[in-house]
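User: Can you predict the 3D structure for this chain?
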Amino acid sequence: MKDNPGATRGTTRRGLLRGAAVGTTALAATSLLPAVDAWADPREHGGSAYDEHDGGFQYVKGVDVLPDTSHATPALAAHIRGYFQAKSDKNLDWQMSYFSRTRFTYIDAILGWHWYAWQDMRTALAGWYPTWPTNSRSYPTRLLGDTTSAILVFTDTPGMFGPGQVRNFGAVNFGRDGRIERWVDYWDARQFGVAGWQKEQEPPAQWPTDFRQSTVGETASPLMWHVATSLANALRAGDISAAMRLFSTDAVYEDVPAHLQITSRASIQTFLTKAASALPYIGADTGLRHVLGNDTGGGYEWTATGSPVPRGITALELDPWGRIERLTAVWNGAYADTAMLTDLAAKAIEQ
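Assistant: Here is the predicted structure, written as structure tokens:
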């Protein structure tokens, strides 16, 4: 299924991103500029690890948040920093230099937007960036994995993609040259606003049917692959006891749209046993789409054909013994009604 940019459909986020005209003289000219080295030190482009005028250490200029990199390699933290600085600066050429021109996939798994060509993505973003507020920032809060594949947890500030902030979990695969070959975003549309999500999402016939994981293959570390597939298989079988054998004693379980955080393997097991039938990532109709990450951080994308929630992502942090010490499940809460979310909260109450 190929994207057809078409004509601009108003001033919505979808219209601006997907409806920008392709092939204008200015965009054609800038697209021929040499790509910025994806491995370059972002300080060469105005970034600074320490800015005495902005109050100290910063990962993205103007943002007083440093990402948790405890489950990422230093190389990933250094490499991807420039990407977020470029996006925050609205420096389109610098940002697009992080993407491969020959192998390209970018999908928003919540809205159904998708681009399979580098130039189409660049053209669409060029139409959107001028509408962003002056102080827009995009910055990571947690990095999981390495420069082969990773889950990037990041925030887009209000006004960039709707009135509220958007907290994304990006499934990202890198090529050997460090450039991004596949990026799929997952987030909870209730933070965006259900009415806004309904307005902006693609019509059913225009959703991607191929999330293109086959274009990059399975490159996660053997340990992460083992943990992720073992967990997905246990949850598919409804075998909560088998799933819990993968967790550390004091593990933390988080479900983002349900706003739940449960600590300790025993308490997690109690909750999952009660809530299994209501959670979209547990049951016979679930499937594992793609695994990402290294021996300390990553996770997997999943599908749920029999659920009102068709897809999502589960981020995993592993301890030194390869056990899950933190699990974060992300799916579109806009598919869930108030009764479902209330039921999940009630099942988290321990007696």
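The domain at 222-347 is CATH 3.10.450.50 (Nuclear Transport Factor 2; Chain: A,). The first helix runs from residue 13 to 19.
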